[in-house]
Design a protein that fits this description.
The protein is of the alpha/beta class and 245 residues long. Helix content is 30%, strand content 18%. InterPro entries: AB_hydrolase_fold (IPR029058), CMBL (IPR042946), Dienelactn_hydro (IPR002925).
């Protein structure tokens, strides 16, 4: 387990020893990992990585899980060539580092990804999921992008967009009860603002006893008491996508 007092403890749990079933492709000005199901589909999901970037095996594992459930999954490099955070970096420099990677300034990258999915993958219904930094990016996209059907924000950093709650599309928010960087008071306030401002379907769910990063934590490192909630989080994510796509 990592030190949960770090500014953004996304490295709780180990990396998957996982190579991925998809392939890396060039999409406009960025690279992306793409995984396609064996049967044709017009449904696709954009997977937005956390601070450890698009090559993290844990994120590719989730992308392939979506593919196993019938979706084209694409995990683009939303840092657009800038280096991802490394576990060896000094956490004292994290705040300055993350300022140069704004989760609300990914629209150019999203546009080229949407074009790729439509032209090269035959996608007509497109959703988005994201983890931590990527979870905040999901909230940003759910507020403004008309081309997306639905989104799942997994422990998205609320403080990035805590004053923006007028959702355009159905959105599912997954939070962990013991998350050190997303206090439950913030989650409660988010719920209140969503209730006041959103006219579309949404759900906010808190998973008991869980910590930041629990849904894409290494499965071999699961504590017995955590396993049911990790599996539930993954199942809830897929069920939400199925419902709205």
């Amino acid at each position: 387990m990592a030190n949960e007092l770090k500014p953004c403890p996304c490295d709780i749990g180990d990396k998957f020893d996982y190579g991925g079933r998809g392939q890396e492709v060039q999409v406009g000005h960025i690279k992306a990992y793409v995984s396609k199901p064996s049967t044709s589909t017009d449904k696709a999901v954009i997977v937005i990585h956390d601070i450890f970037g698009w090559q993290l095996p844990n994120t590719r594992y989730i992308a392939d899980m979506l593919t196993a459930n019938g979706y084209v999954a694409i995990c683009p490099d939303f840092f657009a060539g800038q280096e991802a955070w490394k576990p060896s970096n000094e956490w004292a420099s994290f705040d300055d580092w993350v300022k140069t990677r704004d989760a609300g300034k990914i629209d150019k990258e999203v546009d080229v990804v949407l074009k790729y999915l439509k032209e090269h993958c035959g996608a007509k219904k497109i959703g988005v999921i994201g983890f931590c930094w990527g979870g905040a990016a999901v909230q940003h996209l759910m507020l403004k992008n008309p081309d997306l059907k639905t989104g799942v924000s997994l422990y998205g950093v609320i403080r990035f967009f805590d004053d923006k709650c007028s959702l355009l599309h159905p959105t599912f928010f997954i939070f962990a009860e013991k998350d050190e960087i997303i206090p439950l008071e913030q989650v409660t306030l988010l719920e209140q603002k969503l209730k006041q401002n959103s006219k579309v379907d949404y759900e906010v769910k808190i998973y008991p006893g869980q910590t930041h990063g629990f849904v894409h934590r290494k499965k071999e490192n699961i504590n017995p008491q955590d396993k049911p909630y990790i599996e539930e989080g993954r199942r809830d994510m897929i069920n939400w996508l199925n419902k709205y796509m």
